[in-house]
């Protein structure tokens, strides 16, 4: 009897422990796939080798629309941000969230949509951001595995890289616009400014790079076959980075762009029309049809080339977002005590490690 009483008491502690519960009731909504995994978190402490410090609480300024804990994902005053979470880039994702909250004048009005293919990550996020408004969506890697061709290069690629293709299908239908962000960046300006981007008649907005050599993103087989290269007829395609995008999900859904992207991925399996993985299908569908966004919102390439240990500098002009795209990541370089100069700008947002 004593023993079962103890077990009940322990269960009660686990069930009632605030960090294990979705915080405000409105956030209790979760992707149904995930419920099975997350119903019984194994312990109160963040699991695995990860430990993140708790971020300070960030509060809305007086002139923000009301964003109390009870408001749900469909509230029209929210800014929606989608980010992937996986163990490899978790430290980056947590730093990205931290940076967004710190520079927002209405941090409590930002709603995060986390895309995951692994379990146990929700409790880590909750431990760092106890009052964060968020929802976790399970992205089944099998959805894209059959569509990723099996070259060596692409075998190294994470299925989660493709999750951005499925945002319109995964997120609540009431979410009509979302900012998609990679996990290796920090935002140093108010995300609400990016949110208010005028997309005009376009479905996505992103900084464009028209001086980049667009030819190299596709194979000679692509350019020599009119069935494929004809896709760009009537457009002036420019490279854009898919790590920072403002997406009109309503328009995306009505046109059915997910299927259009999937059709190109099927063609890739038989005809090898490009070398990289998740980027070219986006270029195929949207390049030349992108609402331009100021370059300050994607100062990309800061990862540089880790093999040669090269450090990159910022592009000229103002900076609202720093993006460590490329093979080097600031957290690895800082840990190895060989940081690039700009990596020190990432460090203040890092929450990895135990409380000091
Ligand atoms: C662009 O890239 C293609 C393919 O790599 C190359 O053949 C072409 O010379 C490049 N063009 C310029 C202007 O650099």
Structure description:
With 356 residues, the chain is α/β, with parallel strands linked by helices. The protein has one domain (18-43, 52-300): Spore Coat Polysaccharide Biosynthesis Protein SpsA, Chain A. It has 15 helices and eleven strands. It has helices spanning 2-16, 32-38, 90-103, 121-128, 142-145, 152-155, 167-170, 191-195, 220-223, 226-229, 249-255, 257-271, 279-286, 330-335, 343-346; strands spanning 79-85, 110-116, 133-138, 177-181, 185-187, 204-206, 208-209, 239-240, 244-248, 290-292, 321-323. The strands form three sheets. Strands 3-2-1-4-9-6-10 form a seven-stranded mixed β-sheet. Helix 4 links the parallel strand 2 and strand 3. The longest helix is centred in the N-terminal third of the chain and has 15 residues, at 2-16. It is globular and about 55 Å long. Residues 1-47 have low confidence and may be disordered. Bound molecules: 2-acetamido-2-deoxy-beta-D-glucopyranose.
Characteristics of this structure?
alpha/beta, Spore Coat Polysaccharide Biosynthesis Protein SpsA, Chain A, binds 2-acetamido-2-deoxy-beta-D-glucopyranose, 356 residues, transferase, globular, 15 helices, two-stranded antiparallel ribbon, membrane, 7-stranded mixed β-sheet, disordered N terminus, glycosyltransferase activity, single chain
Helix content: 25-40%
Bound molecules: 2-acetamido-2-deoxy-beta-D-glucopyranose
Tell me the overall shape.
Answer: globular
Task: Tell me the fraction of residues in β-strands, as a range.
Answer: 5-15%
State the distance separating the first and last CA atoms. 42 Å
Number of helical segments with 4 or more residues? 15
- CATH topology description: Spore Coat Polysaccharide Biosynthesis Protein SpsA, Chain A
- For the residues shown, what is the average pLDDT? 85
Order of helices and strands: HHEHEHEHHHEEHEEHHEEHHHEEHH
The unreliable regions are 1-47
**CA radius of gyration:** 21 Å
Quaternary organization: single chain
Q: Which CATH-level-2 architecture?
A: Alpha-Beta Complex
According to CATH, the homologous superfamily is: Spore Coat Polysaccharide Biosynthesis Protein SpsA, Chain A
The biggest sheet amounts to:
7 strands, mixed
CATH class (first level) name: Alpha Beta
